[in-house]
Write a sequence for this structure.
């Protein structure tokens, strides 16, 4: 895209105060505002536990109590839940990637009529309110004996977790030139090979984005474990975190540290692939 | 050749199979179950008994349901326009590529990916009436420091603020939509002497309109379900039902009181409303002549 620089010609123009405000001060202030709750959480998680929180605002604690991050594992039963969450993600995310990239590729290669119907179906699925499915899924899982198992949390991966992911892959594969696939097919490649050796390597940005979003959905899922899990040893980390809603003010730093533990994996993964979230990042690697 | 294209179709539908099968098992079958149960009395243990339209007549006068609808609609009416405005303003402000990289955009997106429960815990502490930072700052500014989570209206304010920090998805969508607008449009308008407001009003905004419409309709659906976790955590389930939102009321009815029939009737009403909204959205967007671009 040659046009990026010409659409914001401000570099070349003289810097008026208003322009400076719009281009630098306001974005920086907003970015800070959006980070503020997380910064506060981080700072609070490093306070010395066991004391009544002070009644005034405090900056970076001195000394920061990094040992809070060890204490939480000794004082609260969060090790097993952490493992359970990891187990769910390890199965659910790859399964999601396979289901959605298969469906997306197939949709992109179908003839126009069935393709249109499937895209419509997928869009329709996006607007179904999930709470309307809570109870009937519970009834269904009870009937087939899936209740109170980690499998009930992983199962949505079978339908691609979110119809939006299917659409993302469909859009990606739809934009790829047909000749790429036809050439390989003339050489006798099967669809499985096309998927593995042509489609996937060209869809890396989409794979990255869907992986992170799917990871976030399963890692953060609070409602499914709340409804389907009864056995405490199966609790996921998100569900376990709810015990910190009723803690006294003195353990607040530990509760905050436990909250940070839930946040770090998603934020870390997001930072790794964030460039694919922005238009420039997607364009440069898909259309070349 | 004929055989080849048959095996081709066969391979394509094999690849679609998991998605279609999953959708059948996890969306279509459950929807049918909900529709069926809505006409019965069922507690999850003894067999359901057919009661016709009784559940629908019941929820028509059931205060917990009527309050939940009122609260949910009230929240949506307030939150969705503000969220849309925030998404649009942020996308316009941060569309330009900066030397500082994507730092600002990352910061804006960050609250969106925080796990629900962590996000809810974080804000309950921020608004803690005794030692939360908000109630330390407000009195210092000479403002009243409310007890926040004991009152329906002040809880609503917290939920609204929380939702305004999580606008990352729409922000990303609008950034992409803005990047798709050829720069030549605004460049030539600028050469003709158009102000930046005129360029926005007559070029950028009309081109963004289908995206804004889609985001609005999606936000209505998603907003009414995303409210569950924060409301559930802050109200602790014990709060009087006058403050409940729709998903909370559904959860209580199904998993607290085991009145599966009543809960299913609520779901059916909700699904029908969502369906009507979708039909409306489709008509509006189609009327602008954009629908084909999306398929």
């Amino acid at each position: 895209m040659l046009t990026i620089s010409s659409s914001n010609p401000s570099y070349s123009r003289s810097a008026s105060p208003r322009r400076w405000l719009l281009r630098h001060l306001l974005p920086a202030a907003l970015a800070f505002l959006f980070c503020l709750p997380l910064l506060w959480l981080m700072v609070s998680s490093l306070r010395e536990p066991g004391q009544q929180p002070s009644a005034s605002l405090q900056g970076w604690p001195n000394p920061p109590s990094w040992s809070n991050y060890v204490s939480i594992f000794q004082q609260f039963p969060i090790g097993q839940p952490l493992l359970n969450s990891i187990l769910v993600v390890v199965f659910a995310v790859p399964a999601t990637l396979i289901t959605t990239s298969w469906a997306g590729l197939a949709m992109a290669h179908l003839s126009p009529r069935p393709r249109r119907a499937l895209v419509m179906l997928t869009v329709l699925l996006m607007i179904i309110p999930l709470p309307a499915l809570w109870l009937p899924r519970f009834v269904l899982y009870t009937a087939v004996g899936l209740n109170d198992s980690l499998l009930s949390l992983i199962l949505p991966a079978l339908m691609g977790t979110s119809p939006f992911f299917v659409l993302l892959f469909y859009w990606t594969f739809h934009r790829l030139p047909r000749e790429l696939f036809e050439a390989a097919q003339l050489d006798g490649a099967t669809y499985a090979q096309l998927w593995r050796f042509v489609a996937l390597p060209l869809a890396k940005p989409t794979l990255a984005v869907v992986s992170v979003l799917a990871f976030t959905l399963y890692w953060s899922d609070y409602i499914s474990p709340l409804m389907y899990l009864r056995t405490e040893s199966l609790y996921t980390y998100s569900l376990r975190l709810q015990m910190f809603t009723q803690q006294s003010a003195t353990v607040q730093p530990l509760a905050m540290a436990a909250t940070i533990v839930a946040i770090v994996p998603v934020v870390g993964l997001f930072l790794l692939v964030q460039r694919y979230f922005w238009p420039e990042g997607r364009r440069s690697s898909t259309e070349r | 050749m004929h055989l080849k294209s048959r095996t081709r179709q066969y391979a394509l539908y094999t690849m679609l199979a998991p998605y279609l099968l999953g959708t059948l098992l996890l969306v279509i079958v459950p929807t049918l179950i909900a529709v069926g149960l809505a006409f019965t009395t069922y507690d999850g243990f003894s067999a359901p008994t057919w009661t016709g339209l009784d559940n629908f007549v019941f929820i028509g006068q059931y205060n917990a349901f009527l309050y939940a609808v009122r609260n949910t609609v009230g929240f949506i009416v307030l939150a969705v326009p503000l969220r849309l405005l925030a998404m649009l303003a942020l996308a316009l402000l941060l569309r330009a590529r900066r030397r500082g990289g994507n730092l600002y955009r990352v910061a804006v997106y960050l609250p969106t990916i925080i796990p629900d429960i962590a996000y809810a815990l974080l804000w309950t502490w921020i608004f803690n009436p005794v030692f939360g930072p908000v109630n330390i700052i407000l009195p210092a500014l000479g403002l009243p420091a409310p007890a926040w989570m004991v009152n329906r209206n002040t809880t609503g304010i917290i939920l609204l603020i929380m939702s305004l920090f999580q606008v990352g998805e729409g922000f990303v969508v609008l950034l992409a939509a803005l990047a798709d607008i050829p720069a030549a449009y605004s460049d030539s308008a600028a050469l003709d002497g158009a102000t930046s407001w005129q360029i926005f009003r007559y070029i950028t905004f009309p081109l963004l309109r289908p995206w804004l419409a889609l985001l609005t309709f999606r936000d209505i659906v998603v907003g009414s379900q995303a409210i569950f976790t924060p409301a559930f955590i802050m109200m602790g389930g014990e709060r009087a039902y006058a403050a409940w939102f729709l998903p909370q009321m559904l959860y209580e009815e199904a998993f607290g009181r085991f009145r599966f029939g009543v809960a299913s009737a609520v779901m059916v009403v909700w699904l029908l409303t969502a369906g009507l909204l979708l039909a409306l959205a489709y008509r509006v967007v189609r009327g602008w002549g954009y629908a084909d671009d999306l398929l």
Remarks:
- Chain B has 14 helices and two strands.
- The mean pLDDT of chain B is 87.
- The first helix of chain B runs from residue 2 to 37.
